[in-house]
Amino acid sequence: MRFRRQTENKTVALEETRFHQIADETIETLSDVIDDALGDDLEVDLQSGILTIELDSGEQFIINKHGPNRQVWLSSPVSGASHYDFDEDNETWTSTRGSTTLHDQLSADLAVKTGNKLDLG
């Protein structure tokens, strides 16, 4: 049963708060895992909720949340731009264009550029 407040605005605010909590936790965890595993080989920077991963070549991966759509966005020098919705049933960020998850796509793309396959999952 879904908890509802008296007004629709309050219901939306609760959902938005949950989105920000989950998105922030996801991005912070990705930052920590990637920095711990590959921090000697690339630059990992998390500022104001935007994760930037810069390769020696100057290419960048950028992961950020997009509040209005309640999505996490990935910009990758390998796969381009992609958007992810949170699937509450599976507790994963799933691509809006298919079944790929944020964690799987980022791991695969980082492997292409660094030669290291990380379990981001």
TrEMBL record:
UniProt xrefs under SMART domains: Frataxin_Cyay
Role this protein plays: Involved in iron-sulfur (Fe-S) cluster assembly. May act as a regulator of Fe-S biogenesis.
Similarity section: Belongs to the frataxin family.
One protein family per Pfam: Frataxin_Cyay
Protein name: Iron-sulfur cluster assembly protein CyaY
InterPro entries: CyaY, Frataxin/CyaY, Frataxin/CyaY_sf, Frataxin_CS
Highest taxon listed in the record's lineage: Bacteria
Keyword line: Iron, Metal-binding
